[in-house]
Amino acid sequence: MHINIEKVSHQYETKQGMLPVLKDLSLSIKRKGFTAIVGPSGCGKSTITRLVSGLIKPTQGSIFISNKKIISPLSTVGMAFQNPVLLEWRNVIKNIILPLEIVSKNMTYNQKRSNALDLLKLVGLEEFENNLPSELSGGMKQRVSLCRSLVHNPEVLILDEPFAALDAFTKEDLWDVMHKLKKERDFTCILITHDLREAVYLADQVIVLSGRPASLQYDVKTNFNEEKKISDLYSSEVSQLLATLRNQIEIAQNNND
Amino acid sequence: MIRINNFIIPLFSLIIFCLLWELLVWYNNWPNYKMASPSDLWPAFWKFKHLFLIYGWETFWRTVVGLILSVLVGLSLGILMGFSKTIRIGLYPILVGFNAIPKATVVPVIALIFVGMHNMNTIIIVILISFFPICVSISIGLSTLEREYEDILLSLGANKFEIFYKIALPKTLPEFFGALKVSTTLAFIGTNLMEIIEPHGKGLGHLFDSGKISADYPLMFAVLITLAVMGIFLYYIVVYLENIFAGWAIRK
Lengths: 257, 252
Known about the structure:
The structure holds 2 protein chains of 2 kinds. By secondary structure, chain A is of the alpha/beta class. Chain A folds into 2 domains: 1-70 and 157-173 and 184-257, P-loop containing nucleotide triphosphate hydrolases (Rossmann fold); 77-153, no CATH class. Chain A contains 8 helices and 10 strands. Chain A has helices at residues 45-52, 92-96, 98-103, 109-122, 138-150, 168-184, 196-202, 236-255, and strands at residues 3-14, 17-29, 34-38, 60-65, 68-69, 77-81, 156-160, 188-192, 205-209, 216-221. A 6-stranded mixed beta sheet of chain A has the order 6-7-8-3-9-10, sandwiched between helices. Chain A has a 4-stranded antiparallel beta sheet with strand order 2-1-4-5, with helices on one face. By secondary structure, chain B is an all-alpha fold. Chain B folds into 2 domains: 1-31; 40-249, MetI-like fold. Chain B has 10 helices and no strands. Chain A binds chain B through residues 50, 53-55, 72-75, 77, 79, 81, 83, 85, 87-89, 98-99, 101-103, 132, 134, 148, 152, and chain B through 146, 148-149, 151-158, 162, 166-167, 170-171, 173, 246, 248-249.
């Protein structure tokens, strides 16, 4: 599923009048690609996730998934946020099957459960099937949230800073979980993040947005290695890439307002 | 062990409370027309045990029926106000104003509208006095649902009903039970307002009133204690239901 964002502008109605957040943004994400979007805070990154998932319509321009224009939410999209938003009254497995209850109403419970269990094994939480979310750590909750976003085999996965609230080591664990999921499942991924190392480590394309109203400022491929390892992040090649991105963010911040 | 403690500790505090009460009366040497002591209560109960059974049951079932109906009223209004901002801002002033009116002043009005229909009058007062906390808690719970919760279902093409049924309603249950506990104790106030103010000759409120007329102070205290015990009983039924339906929200 390739995604095309074509000349998209978007503005919100606020008490102070219209607030433009995106201006003439065009970008394309190739099929099965993993694209990270970075930029100064408040530049409209989360708006992109809501536009691509069809939750809101752009004021101008259009978004296409495999050449089909998005006009309403699609069941082929999965989402995960910084807040894992697990349902506290459901155990882990029942949290994960939630999307199937909407998308695949005819599926039997056992089928749903086995789909969910496959993912739980991938993220290493199969023993916690029957635990309640309140019994899990922050990193575990985020793993469950990732499973939920993938259980209905979406073609597009949208991640809105899912690792931002985690400590450094848990974060790195989750990055590797993400690599594993990406290898096992077929999806095109958009990752919104503030962490440049995360962007470079996970994505094969990093996009820097300019300050508000945001448009495309910088677009770079990050295929520095076939199989990325955490230690790669300390190589001179990657350090240089990170420095360039850092520099681009600074330019974007200065252009803000 | 924890289960036993849950029973022993409240019982223990109750015994201490009664002992202190007894001590207070004994120390001040108050006669029982000034302040009855716990030891005066049992004879009062025994003397009127049949009346306590009959009137107690009457008060109890009216309270429970009124409470169930006020849950229905509170839930429906709360759901409407939780989902529609227009309904919410439209109804709030009326509901707040209505709740500010002392219900004792409404009793004669209701009693005049439905003359002689004592059961219905009592139940109406119970509903009027107890629906408000439920209505407010449900409407706040529903209207403050975080956007992400809606987004995970909306992005899959779920409809409003599915979001309500799968997320909003279960997520509001802890608040609902909190409000129901308040409403439970309010409900007894409602029943007794009607029974005491309107002389229909039924329920524990009437027994209290006749105690007042015949200056039988231990009887009046015995009625109050019976009401307290019934209130505690109903409260723990609500706690039991809360454990079943919203046990996930209770910290162990």
